[in-house]
Amino acid sequence: MDFSYSEEQQMLQDSVQKFVASQYDFETRCKVLEKEGGYDKANWELFAELGWLTVPFREEDGGFSGSAVDLMVVMEEFGRGLVVEPFLATAVLAGGLISALGSDAQKSELLATIMEGKAQLATAYAEPDSRYNLASVKTTAVRQGEEFVLNGDKVVVLNAPNAAQIIVTARTSGESGDRDGISAFLVDSQAAGVTLRSYATVDGQQAAEVHLKDVKVTSANLLGEEGKALPALEQTIDQATVAICSEAVGAMDSLLSKTVEYAKTRKQFGVPIGTFQALQHRMAEMFIDCQLARSIVIMAAMKLDSNESAEQKAKAVSAAKSQVGRAIRKVGQEAVQIHGGIAVTDELDVGHYFKRVTAIEHQFGTTDYHTRRYARLA
Amino acid sequence: MTRIVLAGPSRRTKVNADFTAEELTFQKDVKAFLESEFPSDIKHKVDNGIALEKDDYVRWQKILNNKGWAAPNWPVEYGGTGWTPTQKYIFAMEMGLYGAMEPVAFGMKMVAPVIYSFGSEEQKQRFLPDILASNVWWCQGYSEPNAGSDLASLKTTAVRDGDHYVVNGTKTWTTLGQHADWIFCLVRTDSTVKKQEGISFLLIDMKTPGITVSPIVLLDGEPEVNEVHFDDVRVPAENLIGEENKGWTYAKVLLTHERTNIAQVPNSKLRLRRLRKIASETADGFGGNLLDDPVFAGKLAEVEIQITALEFAELRTLAAVSVGKAPGPESSILKVVGTEASQFIDELYMEVAAYHSMPHVKDQFTEGFSGEHVGTGSLAASADKYFNHRKKSIYGGSNEVQKNIISKAVLGL
Predict the structure, then answer these.
(1) What is the C-alpha separation between B340 and B96, in angstroms, rounded?
(2) In chain B, N or C terminus with fewer CB closer than 10 Å?
(3) pTM (2 decimals)?
(4) Are residues A346 and B218 in contact, defined by beta-carbon separation less than 8 angstroms?
């Protein structure tokens, strides 16, 4: 048993850590948010240059490893620095689906452009009535000769405003809720019939409601076998779930260390507030939550990299999201409360970490959703 | 429903919570008044989560004032209603359940009680009528960047110079400072004595030269609070309330008034009622609605139960007040539990919103927005509300300070 990182993982961690420490302080991040597209294109090129965009992909696809533990290393440091570049949307989600479903031709074309930093992509899976059930798909794709005609609505599609192409899940057969009959299509975001209601999210990402009205795609845009996309979608979302849990672990570490630092320096009643035992115990509890979150995320990442069944992997992912979700609520709220008024202002970084981890809590399923999913998986 | 029958020599103790016939009639009158007089355009905004403007508050308060109902808690001689505690409770409950705003607290609940309790006759004449009619808006100058929970350590100074005080310093968390005409401040007039004993209560016209207001943007992106800077601001000595160096005593009285309805029971009940309806109409993704989810339904039930307990805790406090006891440190319970329950309701709204908790779409919650509306109702504002409402357990004496009060004043620790 050994939880220490390999030499490559250590190098990867050092490299991301160095970037965050030297080029991504809070003030810089605020400026990044103001840039066109809500991220820094120079950073994106740097990510490609440093090889970070290859991390989610297997060696046979030209990637670094495709290992969940490697991805965890990167995401944790992104979380520590509140990095907003659309790594998750483009490389982990869209890249993951293409990698899982794409034909050799699709993979060689698309994965290379992702890894070179030349593509921005999005994945549209959630719908107004689906909540977190990935099989709840009402968007339809009807075959007409060599074409499919897509109709439906997708919600909160991350990075859609920046994406040249959006992967859309649509039902080619069956009823909403059926596991069979869901297909994935690459849709040009400029295609006739595609409209976006774009906005920023509370945590500074770019997203959109995506509407599809008689959008025509050819069968060349189909990813994988018709009607068989769900297992790959589930597997990709599970990978992405562990990735954002890792991000939360990094962000919560920042919240804890900032809170402890503040408690040591902020004086009220003539003494640093960190001398009050009532607050000391609460920070000790934050530490416990952070450590449990870190531990269960490592477990889940290792499980994803193992040869266990898909069901055991899913169960591990839900365990992690459930535990991390509880930690987020406690650590996030306590960090704000112990800081007091200053933490509900826009000017202090603590509130922005709080917003990011809260968004993570509601992405890919809440604590309750994942606790239920865990209980259902034997 | 709720009536407190007090133990007394002429009345055997008989615990009940029913309204008398007169109280039921009063309740009917309040309901009818709200239905006919609360402006429909403001009601539309409240029901749809659209941001209210200053004029909405002014207009509604003028309607209340014309009816004579703007200030139920004031003594009758200054414009109060003379209602019994039960009537006041009914009024606050019906207002809250209808979604009608309470008058802005800074004038009505915070400075006015200090003015009518400790101010001169001239100050009463000068300030109270304009507060009642919402002609003049007030803001609060208490907290400072280094005086939060430890409010008494405040450093803004007021130095007597002839018939003026010269004020220097910075106040913070000044809600509505950008809209206020006047500010009431705690200032240090003596730094040689124990910190609580050198504080005075001063009323300052916001148009006085030397005052600058700088907005502080909160987590939801709104400049809701401000820093107010005082740079050699000359304030007429006649604006001092009561005696010099007695300000801390006056402020404590004010804090007691601030805590009436701090439990926010009517508002929480209204929000829960709406939440239950939205949840019943929200698909759970598995063919049912959210109320079919036993975990969610359980959480909703838990908070409803807590609000009920809180309501009766508040009624017991009210009963004590009605026999002439000042609301004691027990009102700290109302602050702690009321704010935490309210914050928990924010969390449930986010859970109902699911992915739609993430969009930051302030534009669609302003009057006249005509673009595509994201998410059902105001669900897309749920995270922004959650972030903003974290202030509730921090302001008005943080919940930690409330627990200190309970530890010391109630438990004697």
Answers:
(1) 18
(2) C
(3) 0.94
(4) yes
Best of A82, A255, A336, A344 to mutate (most B CBs within 10 Å, chain B): A344
Across chain A, how many H-helices and E-strands are there? 12, 10
Q: Residues A249-287: pLDDT tens digits?
A: 999 999 999 999 999 999 999 999 999 999 999 999 999
Catalytic residue among B94, B102, B144, B258: B258
Q: Across the interface, do B390 and A372 touch by the CB < 8 Å criterion? A: no
Question: ipTM higher than 0.90?
Answer: yes
CATH number among 1.20.120.430, 1.20.140.10, 3.40.50.1820, 1.10.357.20, domain A231-376: 1.20.140.10
Query: How many residues would you count in chain A?
Result: 378
Q: How far apart are CA B140 and CA B396, in angstroms?
A: 11
Residue in B350, B354, B394 closest to A337 by CB? B394
Confidence at residue B9, expressed as pLDDT on a 0 to 100 scale: 44
Residues of chain A with Cβ-Cβ distance to B375 below 8 Å are 155
- Tens of pLDDT, residue by residue over B312-367, are 998 888 777 667 676 677 788 999 999 999 999 999 999 999 999 999 999 999 99
Which among B154, B118, B395, B75 is positioned nearest to B249, based on CA atoms?
B118
The H or E element that residue A187 is part of is strand A182-188
Residue range(s) in chain A whose domain bears CATH number 2.40.110.10: 122-228
User: What would the two tokens of residue A313 be?
Assistant: 């992997």
Instruction: State the best of A362, A363, A374, A376 to mutate against chain B, taking most chain B CBs within 10 Å.
Output: A362
Sign of the alpha-carbon dihedral angle for B228, B231, B232, B233? negative
Q: How is residue A146 written in tokens? A: 């060599």
Based on the structure, what is the number of domains in chain B? 3
| Whether residue B219 is found in the same domain as residue B286 | no
Nearest chain A residue to B173, by CA = A341
B197 carries an active-site annotation: no
Residue pair A205/A247 in contact (Cβ under 8 Å)? The answer is no
Q: Using CB atoms, which residue from B219, B282, B361 is nearest to A351?
A: B219
* Cα–Cα dist A342/A347, whole Å: 8
Which two structure tokens, joined as six digits, stand for B413? 């620790």
